[in-house]
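Pasting two entries for a bug report.
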Amino acid sequence: MLMKKQSLALMGAITLSLSLSACSVMDWLVYKPDIPQGNYMEKQQVEKLRIDMTKTQVEFILGRPVLRDSFADDTWYYVYHYKSGRDASIIHKELIAHFDGDKLTSVTGDYELSPEFSTPLEQSALLDVPTNANSEAEAPQVPADRAEVKPLVEEESPAQVNDAKPEDKDSSGK
């Protein structure tokens, strides 16, 4: 009887340990979604920032900030937080834009700024667009100036559709 109780207790302990270890094995079979939160920003977006940009221009490039300082609207916080569902790794990045009035004065955080950040937007190469008046490929195509003014596809007018021959219709009258 004592032997039966000991073997039953041993079997229970083995079953419990196997069932608990099975939970960690089954954990890989359970789907856990990735959780991105905040403002995801590409490197190219941050590189477009220039000193003396207006708040509207910064918002156009980066989007609305996650947080604006409630006591001073001159500090905007862009925060990105990403938690992977598979391995629970976390990526956390911040970008803090400081303004003086309506003009951008400095940017701090985890993103690398362009070397041209200190160059005002008016003097930046960002606005330089190569123009070549001699090139026809770069000139906009106005329909009246094209060689052919006829449409590429001929459409039937509603009158032509209604004047279709009766023998073209099938026997059901449709």
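Entry 2 (this is the one that rendered wrong in the viewer):
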Amino acid sequence: MTDARTKRTQTLVAAAKAKSQAKLEAAEQAIRDLIKRSEPITFQAVQREAGVSHAFLYGHPDLRGRIERLRAQAHPIPAPAAPADDRSTLVLTLTSQITRLKKQHREEVQALRDALEQAHGENLDLRRELARRSGSTTPQAQAGIPC
């Protein structure tokens, strides 16, 4: 019986190796087909194309490494510096907006001050004219200072 059992075991081991080799070849062919069709290389795409499980793909280090390399080539991971660039761009944009708004504010304030100065000048002229017409000779009235 041990001979029959050993023979069955050897037959099963050989069948398992053949099945594994067939799956490995199917996975390799799936990768080639995906590349030929310019489709993204992912574990799910290879699994679907070859009819193998994720566990099979992850269980074969060479196959796993190849899929990971091809996936990284198709979708390169952005460098960590990119978010910093985005932040610095945002900071520069906001800084220029603030600078522009400050300049606009200064110009508006200056225009208001000029208008106020002109109004004070006109007010002083009107007070002097009023004092002249009313005949008031007090120094305060002549200077335009209200009594």
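Dev reply: Rendering is fixed now. As a check, the viewer should reflect this: Residues 81-134 form the longest helix (54 residues).
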